[in-house]
Design brief:
Layout (H helix, E strand, L loop, with lengths): L2 E7 L9 H7 L2 E10 L8 H19 L6 E4 L2 H11 L4 E5 L4 H16 L3 E5 L7 H7 L8 H11 L25 H5 L23 H12 L2 H5 L19 H5 L5 H12 L8 H8 L6 H13 L4 H14 L5 H11 L5 H11 L10 E2 L4 H4 L6 H6 L8 H4 L7 H7 L14 H18 L12 H6 L5 E2 L1
Parallel strand pairs: 1-2, 1-4, 2-3, 4-5, 6-7
Helix pairs in contact: 3-4, 15-16
């Protein structure tokens, strides 16, 4: 059967992890995404109204990208639905479960109306991490009265369900949203003034509402892996001039951000930081084509002679793993196993574990500079000139950083960076600082020693993070 569906947005103002919306689009020939504004039932202030209207405009824009639209209707749901059921020929109504007492009463009344009109009702849990009815059932029908009891019940349920797929264009194949030219007049998102709100009463627009802003904000915070893993809410600051927490709560409240999406994104960070899968970077390192002459000279010597000094091994191992490229130590081990004359299995594996910071070694902020380290014993660059003859005519001041040489110098040396010799594949300082944060987060999650401890706020944790020691 091809349904004519209404998906009723209340909270859950998003397309990601919205199983009720997906249910509305299943076996559907006509879809009406609906939001009912009942200003008389709400006591929220102008800032909250602005946030809601932002969210509705964002939702309408995201639906429009897929050929659909949001229908905003004003009035009491119990009075609005009988008219819409008839006007739109509705056969199915879907919505997200709202556990609040007043919402439960409203939804029960609407479900009865739907039954009277022969409309199927589909309700899905996605505003809360767990189905609250299931928790009550596990607790003999009573609300758990302590946090410890709640944790015990949740432990018996296991992790929350994974988020549902976001609504995509393919979900709407064969499904249309009937829109008239007058849609914006008849069903558009109103302004604050149209809702009787005074625009002068709103404060600075610091937190725009909507799914787009929510997901962007989530991404920004999840990139701060060290801060996330070291986060302790009691140590945040109520007087910080910029928020010392995430300010994701409004987006969770309105459902612009799915709480399950938030939970599982946090779980990914807490599980540790995986090595990057970057065959291009691995190949450049192996072949001595990283754009850093000291590293490339070492790898050239290894490839041609089968031996390199132990500190040279330190430098290239650090560069491949935690220092710059964030490629797994196991990949480096394989290359050394193949090319070294003295490749002893236990020593090779142990040294790679150590140099990558994966085991035995806690000074993860001690990084071998691909520039400064070689200069300590070979300022003129004789080692580089021997193993990278393409660079032999560069002046000493540029031999470790040929990309900094003026073009005229490069021309006189007979080597144009980017043509005859590669540009650096990463920017060392930025890469090493980013990787230090990833290493710190991974070690914090494993409960190993952190150096130094996380600061009490986001701002302070950024200012006081351990400085990368360049050697």
């Amino acid at each position: 059967m091809q349904h004519s569906s209404i998906h009723w947005f209340r909270k859950g103002l998003r397309l990601h992890d919205n199983p009720a919306l997906l249910a509305a689009a299943t076996d559907c020939c006509r879809l009406h995404p609906l939001f009912i504004l009942d200003p008389s039932s709400s006591r929220v202030g102008a800032n909250a109204w602005r946030f809601l209207l932002d969210a509705l405009r964002d939702l309408d824009g995201r639906l429009r990208e897929m050929g659909s639209r949001l229908f905003v209707v004003r009035g009491c749901p119990e009075e609005v639905f009988p008219h819409l059921f008839h006007a739109w020929g509705t056969t199915r109504l879907t919505f997200e479960v709202d556990p609040e007492p007043s919402a439960r009463q409203r939804d029960t009344a609407v479900a009865k109306l739907a039954a009277q009109h022969g409309v199927e009702v589909v309700r899905e849990v996605s505003h809360t991490l767990y189905d609250t009815e299931r928790i009550l059932a596990l607790n003999d029908g009573k609300a758990p009265l302590t946090y410890k009891r709640l944790q015990s019940l949740l432990a018996s349920l296991g992790p929350p369900e994974k988020p549902a797929p976001a609504l995509m264009q393919e979900h709407l194949q064969g499904c249309c949203t009937p829109c008239q030219v007058s849609h914006d007049i008849d069903y558009g998102v109103p302004t604050l003034e149209e809702l009787g709100q005074d625009p002068t009463k709103v404060g600075p627009h610091l937190y725009p509402g909507g799914e787009t802003a929510a997901l962007t904000r989530l991404d920004v915070h999840m990139e701060r892996t060290a801060w996330v893993c070291g986060f302790k809410k009691p140590e945040t600051e109520p007087t910080s001039l910029s928020p010392s927490t995430t300010v994701l709560s409004p987006y969770l409240k309105f459902g612009c951000l799915s709480v399950r999406t938030f939970w599982w994104r946090l779980d990914e960070v807490y599980q540790g930081v995986d090595w990057d899968d970057n065959p291009q970077h691995l190949r450049a390192w192996r072949e001595g084509q990283t754009g850093y002459p000291f590293i490339d000279a070492i790898m050239t010597q290894l490839r041609s002679e089968g031996w390199i000094h132990h500190l040279a091994r330190h430098a290239v191992a650090c560069f491949l793993t935690r220092g710059d490229l964030w490629v797994s130590w196991e990949e480096g081990l394989k290359v050394f196993e193949e090319l070294l004359l003295d490749a002893d299995w236990s020593l090779n594996a142990g040294n790679w574990l150590w140099l990558s910071g994966s085991a035995f070694f806690h000074r993860y902020f001690h990084v071998y500079s691909p520039i400064a380290f070689g200069k300590k014993t070979d300022r003129d660059g004789a080692y580089i000139r021997k193993y990278l003859p393409i660079l032999k005519d560069f002046p000493a001041e540029y031999i470790y950083e040929p990309w900094k040489a003026p073009r005229s110098v490069q021309e006189r040396a007979g080597c144009l960076v980017g043509t005859h010799y590669p540009r650096p594949i990463v920017e060392h300082r930025a890469a090493s600082e980013r990787n230090m944060g990833r290493m710190k987060a991974a070690r914090a999650q494993r409960g190993t020693k952190r150096e130094p401890p996380a600061g009490p706020s986001a701002a302070k944790s950024q200012r006081k993070k351990p400085k990368v020691e360049q050697h």
